[in-house]
Structure formats: structure tokens, C-alpha cells
Amino acid sequence: MEQLKLQIERALDTAPRHYEHLLAPRQAGVRLLSVDVRETPSTQTIAIDVSQRALTYEPSGNIEPLLDTVIQATSLAIGPKQLVEYTFTVEGLPIDRFLPRAARLSRQAQSVAAGDVVLVSPGHGLYWDEFLSSWHLQRPRIRGIVEDLVNWDIARYLRDELLARNVNTQMARYPEADETAGPSSSARWQEGAKYFIQALGAPVDIWNFGVDDYARDINARPFYANWIDAAALISVHNNAGGQTGTETWYDDTNGLEGESARLAQIVNTHVVSAIRQRYNGTWVDRGLRVCNGCKGENRLATRPSVIVEIAYMDTTTPDNDALHDDAFKRIVAEAIADGIREWASAADDGRR
Length: 352
Prior knowledge:
Blueprint: H1 2-11, E1 32-39, E2 43-50, H2 64-74, E3 83-90, E4 93-94, E5 118-122, E6 127-129, E7 134-136, E8 141-142, E9 145-146, H3 147-164, E10 169-171, H4 193-199, H5 204-207, H6 213-227, E11 232-239, E12 246-251, H7 257-278, E13 285-291, H8 296-299, E14 305-312, H9 316-323, H10 326-351
């Protein structure tokens, strides 16, 4: 526990990515008040309490970059577990009480068999940085690849796999690999979801919620899923933090945590099994990750929602090497599609 606390303290000595213009959190008065870890052979619960200054560290009140920094700092201390549960509190109060909520547009899981949409969301993408007055990708280039673009590759394969299985599927970013230019003057498929959803004609409160385009891009994805009443939201990401393997996140405060947990478990199992059988027999299963509001892509979705963190961009072998390989991307996409079909079939059977 002391090692975990030390890692978090060190992380608070550096401003989060894309917020380098701010003071480091500890310089700005953010304090780690306590860390409590409880373990069983297969699960781990990490309770992290921070000072109230965390809520206003970023002037707009966007706390997610700070939480991501804390989570990434813990990754080196967390090995593969069936389930890791993060509980964040602010001076003892659950952090989800302080975060914006989504309007309740859906009260139960929709039916994939009845033709409802599965929304596939490739994480990140080009965005307009108001502080630097420039467009740039949200993640750094590592050994010749960028997560923003790798995510899109896998998500596009996933969309095609789902369509081939007669699942009504949409993407949250521009879905065609052409050179059509967007507002960034780069190819539209490289841009974040906010700009694509805006161009689709969604209401302004769907794509314009947040203090800057970085936050708006995150928020637009679950809000769009809610607006189209999607059956599920599947966010495709890759990880960082010096570890290896696959983990899948869900939220326990969005009102559909039971279905989200079931979807996360099925998808994670399919992805790890497929990689082990078809690509790398020793691929690490990091299990499920759950928290009380720390990731807006899940928290703001009023339907089953998961984030699949497929591999670690900053681990050369086997993770980054695999992400260079188109065969690996296709295997993962097929596995996620298989998981979605299994999840949907069981849900539809339960309605009969």
C-alpha cells in the first residue's frame, strides 16, 4: 500500500497530459489524503481519497485528466486480477456526486436483435487545442504508431464484423478511410468524434458539452449513444502505464452497471481467448476495471457501456509490436464482435 501511495504522490508532481500549462497538482494544492487496498486472490479494491482542491484543479472543473493520472500511476502495482474496483472520494464523499450526469433517455437495455444500434467509438482523434491554437492528436507517437489512429483501425474492423453479422452498427468517428478533409484540414477519419457528430446534425448539446474540445470530444460519444438510443456503447482504446495485456472498464454509477459488467466480462473473455488461440498464447488477461464515475465515456452513457483497453502502447513486446500488425487488429475486432453477439443473444433470451 505504501508503494502505491508513493506512486500516486509522484504522479501528482506532474501536470496531466494536455494540461502542461497548469501547475502540477500537488503544487496547486491537490492532496492525496488516503489509499486503502483490499485484496482477495482474484479481486482488488482500491479506495483513493483526495482533497477538495482536486475538483477545481482544472479551472473548468474537469476532473477526469487528474483521475486518469492517478489510475495510470497505479498500473505498475496492479497485476492481472479478475476484477479491480476503484472508488474515488473527495474528503470522504463519493466522487460521482460531484460529476455531471447524463439525462436518463433509456431505462433498460435495448435489443440488438430488434435492430437497435451498437455504437462503436474509436478513442481519441485530432482535436482543436485552444491553449496552443493548433490541431493535434490526443496521444503521442510511440514506435511509429499513434493510439488515436490504431483505435480507429480496430474500430473500423469491428464495425465491418458487426455489419457482417447483421448487427446495426454506427461509428462515433468518421467511418471511411478516405482523404475527405474535415475542419482540421486533415482526413476526417483522423479527427475526434465531436466534429463527426456535429456534422451529422446532432443537437448542439450533444457535441458541445464541455469547456474545451478535448472534453467535448469525450462527452459527445456517450451523449450521442444516448441520443440515438443505442443498445450499447463499445469504446476501443489502448493503454499506457508500462504493463501488458488487455483490460475492460465499466462504470458502477450509470444506472445499467449490471448489464455493463456482463458485457465487459463477455467481451474481455472473447478478446483474451482469441489472442491466445490465434496470436500469442501467453497474452495477459488483466481482467475487469470498474470505478464510480472516473471515465465519462462510461459514466455519461445511459446504456451498457464498456471501454476495451486492448494493449499497452508503451510496452514494446508483445503489446506495441502486436498493434503494428494488421492481423492482430482483425483478431481483436472479430473477438469483440463475437462477444457483443453473445451478450446480445443472452439479453434477448432473457426478455422472452
